[in-house]
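Quick note —
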Amino acid sequence: MGVIRKLSPSVVNQIAAGEVVERPASVVKELMENAIDAKARRVEVSVERGGKDLIRIADDGEGMAPDDLLLAFQPHATSKLSEVDDLHKIRTLGFRGEALAAIAEISKLRCQTRRADADEGSEIQIEAGIAGPIKSCGGPPGTVMEVRNLFFNTPVRRTFLKSDGTEAGHVAETFSRIALAHPEVHLTFRSGGKIVHDLPAVTGIRDRIATFFGRELAESLLWVEGRLDGISLWGYVGHPSQSRSSTKNQFLFLGGRYVRDRSLSHALNEAYRGLLMVGRNPIAFLNLEIPPEEVDVNVHPTKIEVRFRDPQRIYSHLLSTLRQTFLASDLHSRLQAVPAEQPAASAPRPDAPPAHPSVGPSDSPYGLGSGPTDRQAVASWFEPTSRRPAGEPPKFPDDIGQIQPPEWSRSLPGRFEFASGPTFDEFAGAKAAEAEIDEEDRGAGGRMPASATPPVEPARAIGAELKLKGTGSKAIQVHDSYLIAETSEGMMVIDQHALHERILYEELRKKVADGRVESQGLLVPEPVPMAADEAATLLEHADLLAELGIEVEGFGRDTVLVRSTPVMLSRMQPDRLVRDLAEHLATQPLPPTRDGLVAELLHMVACKAAIKAGQRLTPEEIDALLDRRELAADAHHCPHGRPTALIFTKSELEKQFGRI
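Predicted structure written out below.
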């Protein structure tokens, strides 16, 4: 007798349920997507005990005819595919034909449906995959699905479910993802008989972002849009002052479906390189439209993962669009006073973002000095973002615009040396690609214009606005760490180390790109003993270090011979520089690409060459430093993501002193 047997339909459906239905939230996802595919304009979701006892989805969609009702719950039965070629151009949210059969196999299900042209509706009840007769029923056009006692016939699966509150939280998360992807649908969510969300249909997602994540976050978002070769990208990304410790608040929607993709997540993080501190993650709500034949959405049973035909092109488009957006935006951190009736020390709301996560403590390893009052304490007096009237677009200064790479006209006196050279634009390729877009497509009607960003005006001199009235200096130095200057908006407090680090980083990056980093050969090469693994790692990257002006070679066993160092670091001992580089390369996670590794090393070199907190500057040095601030493309953040300056507006200062 053979050992191979054909599984029964019940076992097949339960196996499918194990892939498709992980928890009640999975059922909510499948049924809501079916409702939206049925062209519903209103969907109501109700759950009891987190969906364990009841999941009810009611919609006003097209409904089903009685002849289709029983067939809809058969395995691999669907209205969304007709032939194999349809798999290569999926335009719906569901298509596999497994979800309803799997859900009906592990629950007690009732479905009532009616088409708009029918006089009466139809109803069917299914328990553990066994269907009852189809009956007539009344009701409005649309479909009502009730799923009770989920996993009642698979008790082992039910024991793996979490508490009612946890499961309700997963349902709410699923609801929020679909609500963000489909703002044109009126959605209602009830849990335990109480209305949690009632979201009318809107034209954009900013209002829904405010509902789920708070008004402050929604108002600080930056609009992103771009189009290239049939690929459309639009949505919102968070201001660098709004970041999170996890990637939970990164939402990528492909054709109206929430998806996860490691490559695009990496592109998002790469776009924020130098704007966020280590360990912080950006916030994003991005929609991606791509021709259906360019993407495979049938990779995962839950359709949460996808595969692109040309992932590198999607990666580059996302990265360049975000960077162009940042270059055309004002990314300075602005501090706003807490209203008098709200105690400053009150506990934050659970959904509120942390107060200025970009501002580091006084013991930062990047040179922040300590004092009686550090910047973290100052930041705690204020809310993280400025307010503006609802619906009013953000106003950006005229001086925020196209890239102005460092091109020094004179040298900082004393300890700083800067060289002149041709401009370098790392985004030239992206700009050229955008310039190829047909002018007839710009501003065309539809969901979004074809151009990624409007034309960018040349930047005005930011440093010219920094001046202390009654003096010839641009700023004064306090605690030998911070520079205070008057601006047209109010007052700016500048971190001297962070600003100089950004200036040096951009200068060195330009020199590396031009292949002209000045190095100084040592009169006597210096041997540097170190751990064997660190020496091996350092020598492995010897060619890359040579581009930075650091020439090293093996000197036997665990010793490295240093032959030259960058002129910029002439004041730093070669053995200390090489040891720090070796330790960093051997212990820190390194970027996967060569460009990322170059940027990582440039961050470290610029940090070590920059002036430090606690280092007194002469008035001439202060003025020279601020003169060069205007030439830095990203002068608002240092390469490690900390802000270089904080802006206190005049109106907020007057509020604090009770003048208004």
